[in-house]
Amino acid sequence: MMTRTPPTGIDVHSDVWTDPLTPIVFLQRTLRVFPNRPAVVNGDEEWTYARLAEEVGRMAGALRRAGIGPGDRVAILSPNTPWHLAAHFAAPLIAAPLVSINTRLAGPEISYILQHSGARILLVDPELAPVLDGQDLPSTLERVIEIPDHAVPVREGQEDYREFVAGAEVLPIENPIDAEDTLLSINYTSGTTGMPKGVMYTHRGAYLNALGEIGSLGFSKETVFLWTLPMFHCNGWCMPWAVTGAGGLHVSLRGVVPDEIFSMIDRHKVTNFNGAPTVLLMLA
Question: How far apart are CA 91 and CA 24, in angstroms?
């Protein structure tokens, strides 16, 4: 039988050997090692990992200030923006499961997911928000907050994300859980004849899957990942955590537009993107 021997100089009683597994530690480590490396490109805007961690901590602090705590669901309806990426760390940072909603669903389906998941807060991109107009939203949903991005402003009369986070405590990036089977996210199925079904991720499962992607796909700090894959789809196959763990660069993409994809590949020297058959056919 093989036994694990800790590296020389490592205290076997250190928390390093006992902390529950969570993808939050990917950002924690990359922030410590590569704080000034580019983390996100969004149009002409660029965030370093220090900036990403700050935005994550501020979003988490604002959610906590709004009364969100462990086990409370936080929903997001958004294209692949830096804010959607940040939510993948901010909600779990306060042990609040993230519900990332399919942007292609109709209003009644989105309303059902909000009701079924018990989401208390919805973060929504203003371009997608109109689908909810006139919908019978569940009583458990306390606030709908619109997050502006590029030339898509918050609509008049709607709660603005900038006001939501203003003055909020910026929480440190640290392991938030005591048990690694803590619920991390709920992803909803689509394309069936029945209502969407909620599929649960744990912190441990997401951590191990992301770690496997780093190894099997050869991600490194030189990785430049173009977000053709929707972050709502199985939490982007855990790529938000995997690319971050490797210290790579996330290139935001609001929609699959072939000319724009080719332009970004050239401009940012993209090394990886996910291509479903439909995406590859569009590019061909």
Answer: 10
